[in-house]
Design goal:
Number of helices: 5
CATH architecture: 3-Layer(aba) Sandwich
CATH superfamily: Glutaredoxin
Order of helices and strands: HHEHEHEEEEH
Oligomer: single chain
Largest sheet: 2 strands, parallel
Helix content: 25-40%
Number of strands: 6
CATH class: Alpha Beta
Number of domains: 1
Shape: globular
Radius of gyration: 14 Å
């Protein structure tokens, strides 16, 4: 998530909103956002409805959700999905910027 935070201005320059959907309740998401001074949106998904909608995986051995990055265009069409196998398996911002620039 810090990677997205560090690239926030470049996403904003591309007219791209960042939404992070987390497994926690609203209170925990709010606290995390405030503690880390994050500029983008954090949305709680305590009941895992969004997780199920987009097919994000859970690994009980890693104690939770595996990372996923999804690009959705302004019309609501999913244009790109990356399901990570671990927290180190996340595309770099530059890869995401290239995809956005092609939309």
């Amino acid at each position: 998530m810090m990677q997205l935070h560090q690239g926030y201005e470049e996403f904003e320059d591309r007219n791209t909103a960042i939404l992070v959907i987390g497994p926690d309740n609203a209170e925990r998401v709010k606290k995390y956002w405030e503690e880390n001074d994050l500029k983008f949106y954090g949305i709680p998904d305590e009941e895992h409805k969004v997780l199920k909608l987009y097919g994000q995986k859970v690994d009980i051995f890693r104690l939770g959700r595996l990372p996923a990055q999804i690009l959705v265009d302004k019309e609501g069409n999913v244009r790109y999905i990356h399901y990570g196998k671990s927290m180190s398996d996340i595309p770099e911002n530059n890869e995401i910027f290239e995809l956005i620039d092609k939309l």
